[in-house]
Amino acid sequence: MTQVGLSSPSLPMCPSAMRTTLAFARRELREALTSRWFLLYTAAFAVLAVATSFMSLAGTGSHGFAGFSRTAAGLLNLVMLVVPLMAMTAGATSVAGERERGTLLYLLAQPVSRLELLLGKFIGLSAALCASLCIGFGLSAGVLAWRAGGAGVGSFLSLVGFTCLLAVVTLSVGLLISVSTRKASVATGVAVFVWLTLVFLSDLGLMAGSLLFKFRVQELFSLAIINPLQAFKMSAILGLNASLDVLGPAGVYASRTFGAALPWMLAGVLAAWGALSFLAAALIFTRRAPV
Amino acid sequence: MKLQRAIVTFALFVAGATMTPAIAAEYVSTVGAIEKLIESADPGATVRVPAGRYTGNLRITKPIVLEGAGVVTLDGGGEGTVVELLAPDITFRGFTVTGSGAGIDREPAGIRAETGPVTIEDNRIEDALFGIDLREAPNSVIRQNQIRGKDMELGRRGDGIRLWWSHGCVIEDNIVHSTRDMVFWYSEDLMIRRNRVEDSRYGLHFMYSHHTVLSENVLLRNSVGIYLMYSNEITIEGNTLAQNRGASGYGIGLKDCDGIVVRNNSLLANRVGSYIDNSPSSVDSSGVFEGNLIAFNERGMLMTPNTHDVILTGNGFVENEEQVAVHGRGDLTLNTFTRDGRGNFWSNYAGFDADGDGIGDFPYEAASLFESLIAREPNLRLFVHSPAQQAIEFTARAMPAVRPSPKFADTAPLMTPPTVEIVQIQRSHAGLMTVCAICLVGVAVLVLNVMGRSAVLPGPVAALSSEVLV
Asked: What number of C-beta contacts closer than 8 Å exist between A and B?
């Protein structure tokens, strides 16, 4: 068992603990800025977002009609594919990487608690990811303003907001993977597998199940929203359309049954994924030997 | 000299200001006053009604031209029909008509004509259950009226404009807002152009009404833009149908109609661009869709599997989530997607045009595994817009064994969409979006700059983090 830095429950209220956490956050952010993954992800996301905006406006910009809703569909797909991968691999390498390099032991030898360290990493990486996303979305917004007259500013901002939430949530999942593995390469591998499951396997499985077992709408809907990516997708579509009717019978069922509570439900699913993963990560990290 | 002129001008201005009565209390009377004016006029004469507000229900029983000049309000006080035109050759122009009854059993209207021809123009109708109601009033003209319905739920509203057994009418340049339908019953040879219907149930609704031209109308945010039922030989030309997304949500819906021509319309962002249910219904008839821009709808066209002899050429199917869908299971091979070597433009066409004749070198085949899965199990639409959907489509492209048989084929797909003039229906927020773009990038840079810069760190952590970084 561990000897150092078991967190006391009163820590979040203590100003010095907050300072330490923030210091770790800044360190994480600084490391992100100098690291290749951050630059690569930022550039990749920016290029893809701009390209998606251009492509979805191709041949329609001249009508001054298309606006954001079509671009949103393209961006939605991009976000669901890229953002969880970015966030989960970033989270997965953070703790496991330090452990592998031996710096984790060194950090924990200082008079800081493990929770402060983990929270600091979480905040710093969240800030880095959100900033990276904002750059991509900002450029995409520039394209929209230039080519499509920029209709739908509100829906665009809601998509940005939900995407940042998704990034933070999947980052906590990444951190959970990171604290449970010893090697950075293993952590990355597990993260990619989880990403594959969330993005493709679970949806494909549900589709197959639906065809085989003829799920009723409520069953299909409740099974689908367990997946944080589906919850994100539905929240984003709600932000665009104010209704899930584009998602067919199951969407109409959800809109009819839950009405105004639906966005809170979906945000709750996302928040639960984030909070539970982080809690589990904190528990494992504070209980486990540093090496 | 200059000063003198200034003083004179000022004096004149003051005199003018004091002599015109400062917005006097509105003249209020009953419609009896107008009826007396009409009584004393000769048939066919022009009667100008003095400015003011007249309460009660006006009945006009003499051929006459009644002018309101935009300063006369007729208020039914929430009882019955406000204005009734009970003689032919009446012109009713320039009034504000308000306050009809609300109970649908008596069908109270703003203006009702029981005989024709009549001319109803330049009126503003507000708070009326039915707006303008023509009953057996042939050859009438309804022009440049603005109609706003009562603020009720869709099913309890009345029709903005209704024609009943009124042939040969012209309905043009009207603006209708928040009503049920603009509906035509048993009325033939109409000319319906440049009307605008918004936030209603069916923008233009035809029941058993044949031989009509609908052109350049704008139908926005209704449940259905144009719905033709059991009506034959109708031409729909140059209309804009956008964001009709109610319960049915069709841009154009056709039910059991023969000889329909749909040409050069733009159908944008509706739930379904055009819905075809058993039209043409007779064996020897056909329907024509030509040069329409069908874009950004969830489904560009939705056809029942029994649909036959619909000829689609020169249309642009742009970025519809599903370009052409079958309502139920089956295919659409009884219809023509290519005629005289010209097909349609498909934004998801993957082929190329090597010889540069504007026609793709491979046929466009509408076969999507995900769409055919949705046709089998509609609930699966829940997974639209997700990477899993793309994965399924990719699988179908990579493995021909699982590719479904095509719903139809267009053997000569066009490489460019038709040019259709589109009415500007969305306000531009380019400025706001630019601000949004700058803010997003700005916030990101600020966060990175402020938080990421090495700042004063508290004691031990500063030491260790700088060491770690080194």
From this structure: 220
